[in-house]
Amino acid sequence: MKNWSPGLAVVVMTASIAFAGIAAQSQQYPFRDPNLPTEQRITDLLSRLTAEEKITLMSGAPKIPRLGLSFTGQVEGLHGLALGGPGHWEGRGKQPLPTTTFPQERGLGNTWDPELMQKIGALEGYEARYYYQRLQDNRGGLVVRAPNVDLARDPRWGRSEESMGEDPYFVGTMTVAFQHGLQGPDPAHWQTASLMKHFLANENEDTRDSSSSNFDERLFREYYSVPFRMGFEEGGSRGVMAAYNSWNGTPMMIHPILKDIMIKEWGNNGIICTDGGALGLLITAHKRFPDKEHGSAAAIKAGINYFLDTYKEDLAKALKDGLVTEADMDSVLRGWLRALVSLGQFDAVDGNPGPNDPYGKIGRDNTTPPYERDSSTQLARLATEESIVLLKNDHNTLPLDASKLKTVAVIGQWADQVLLDWYSGTPPYSISALQGIKEAVRPSTKVLFDKGTDPAAAAKLAAQADVVIVVVGNHPYCNATRWKQCDTPSNGREAVDRKTITLEEEALVKQVFAANPHTIEVLISSFPYAIVWSQQNLPAIVHLTQNSQELGHGLADVLFGSYSPAGRLVQTWPTGDDQLLPIMDYDLTHGRTYLYDKKKPLYPFGFGLSYTTFVYQKLDTSAKQIAGDGQVEVTVHLKNTGSRASDEVVQLYVQHLDSKVTRPQLELKGFRRVHIEPGHTTETKMTIKARDLAYWDAARHAWRVEKEPISLLAGGSSDALPVTVEVQVNKSFEYKP
């Protein structure tokens, strides 16, 4: 070794001995003992920390060198671990790290497949461990900011690409499955921690930093909070991010419900963090406090234990001035420290996993990186296939027969790219729509391509082809170079709401169709669009979302028939802007979502076609009556009457027939994605619990199950429910949260 000297050897040896001494000493602390109860370990650590160290613990990836502690920070992961991508989540100036990249969260919702979601969460959690434990430069983290649990109540919401849909039960079910994958099967030892975003009703972008989402307690209980509650109670999450906005005038990061409901009722005794810069917004936008000193004190007292903001000097001053006490800080820090215990961080010394950490070996051997494994590629491809929704298919236009095509025209400005959204990571590779189509046709087939920026030239190209595949949609972050920039009215992004749901590119589609009636529209989009003309005129339309590394392969699999589509829409698609309420109207009962909207949409919630046909034969129940605290088993019988094997998404809804209060006109209460061979019949079983039929009685602060008849309806879409049965709830019941 060059430049080696005896003096240097002494220095290295001395440092090694000193480190070994610190490590040995740190192992003797009671907080290191995995056999002690968690609360006892936390109490011991808190007793050893200075006030300054406690403040330091509340952000970033905190370190306490004198105790040998190096704790994890947070990382984004809405649809794959984000250590790269347009948002530069790897860190400015650092090389992006490849990770398996899936369709946008909206696309994952379109799969209607909780089992798939759990597998995706498990892979993402594994990759988070892989990088965190393999690298030594503080990159990555074990607290994953995912999933986004906000509900897509309005298609103009610029960030609705991050939402899995408009139905609370559906989003909650998919959330729970994803969390089970992220965190792993052992509730005491997590692979990663799931931190849900953004609590609560963060569903407009314009003025989000100062606006108030206003609605009553019943809608809070029955709609907006449902997926969060399910994430805590069923998913095992112990982490949440407070939203920028207010609810009924009180900013969410200091709202009393953080303690009164989230902690006391739902059991979130873990992480409650701010959104980025939210502390400052308490002063500048919400104008609640004169300065961040007072704001940070209020946040601590409300339950916040992790800041995505500058806060240390302000909180230190608040502590010195008596606005907050060290006991207040200890109380909230316990939540953050509980999560760290579950992640094995108390057992780790200077970032090295403890010997009993079941995930401690990930990334520390020479196995193939997870994003390079065939199983990861296959999972991304399957997720893409399952996410594709067939919106129209007149005269069995699809699937295309590749053996009969001599010339295919592909038109679209983004057809030769896979566009990544702001919260994406960097995929190890990506297959565009154009590339996937080229791979699917015969070598002798000509594939013509035009970006469509000159509609006349695109039409001329289209006229030369046997079939035209026109790829339209939006750019995930508006192809913008500045924050809050979005020049296309129908597009949106974080901090920018859409101004219309009319697709500007439909003008291009019209010209291409005029030149060649054998035109198929591929809508690759983050949002619903009012593509009324396309629906009325084109022979076939398919929809999928952005971002998957396997986008082109999944699309080609559907277009050319190696996969029969079964994706379903997770949000109602209106016919136009005139069907929409003001975006700041958060009262659903005025006529929003499939739950309360009586207007006929372009495409309903749960809609999607297939390459085969299914007949729903009957719906059986285990009983004709159900007690107020009981349940009933439901069996749906259906048959694949077509010639192709395919998945079908069986959806079960409830209607209240004699409720004394206003109820949704239809409510999803169960769903299953099932695979059925042609000519075969299957029985799909689901359970309806009486408490799932309850409404919130604000006067009694309780859930109330009514004595009444209800209808159970099943089918493949919210507007196609051919089998039904009536069940009597024979006794009312009340239960406290």
Q: Can you put this structure into words, describing what you see?
A:
By secondary structure, the protein is α/β, with parallel strands linked by helices. It has 20 helices and 28 strands. The strands form eight sheets. The protein has a six-stranded mixed β-sheet with strand order 12-17-16-15-13-14, with helices on both faces. It has a five-stranded mixed β-sheet with strand order 19-27-26-21-22, with no helix packed on it. The chain has a three-stranded parallel β-sheet with strand order 3-4-5. A hairpin with a 4-residue loop joins β24 (695-697) and β25. α6 (168-183) runs parallel beside α8 (226-233), α11 crosses α12 (312-320) and α15 crosses α19. The model is unreliable at 1-24 (pLDDT under 50).
Summary of the model, kept short:
With 737 residues, the protein is an alpha/beta fold. The chain is built from 20 helices and 28 strands.
Beta fraction of the residues?
15-25%
Count of helix runs: 20
Residue ranges: pLDDT <50 for 5 or more in a row?
A: 1-24
**Shape, please?**
globular
Compute the CA-based radius of gyration: 27 Å
Overall mean pLDDT score? 95
Secondary-structure blueprint:
Elements: H1 6-27, H2 38-48, H3 51-56, E1 63-64, E2 69-70, E3 74-76, H4 105-110, H5 114-134, E4 143-145, H6 168-183, E5 193-194, E6 196-199, E7 212-213, H7 217-224, H8 226-233, E8 239-242, E9 246-247, E10 250-251, H9 257-263, E11 271-273, H10 278-284, H11 292-302, H12 312-320, H13 326-342, H14 374-387, E12 389-393, E13 407-411, H15 433-440, E14 446-450, H16 455-462, E15 467-473, H17 506-515, E16 519-524, H18 532-537, E17 540-544, H19 551-559, H20 593-596, E18 614-621, E19 625-626, E20 631-640, E21 646-656, E22 667-676, E23 681-689, E24 695-697, E25 702-705, E26 708-715, E27 723-729, E28 733-735
Parallel strand pairs: 3-4, 4-5, 6-8, 7-9, 8-11, 13-14, 13-15, 15-16, 16-17, 19-27
Antiparallel strand pairs: 1-2, 9-10, 12-17, 18-20, 20-23, 21-22, 21-26, 24-25, 25-28, 26-27
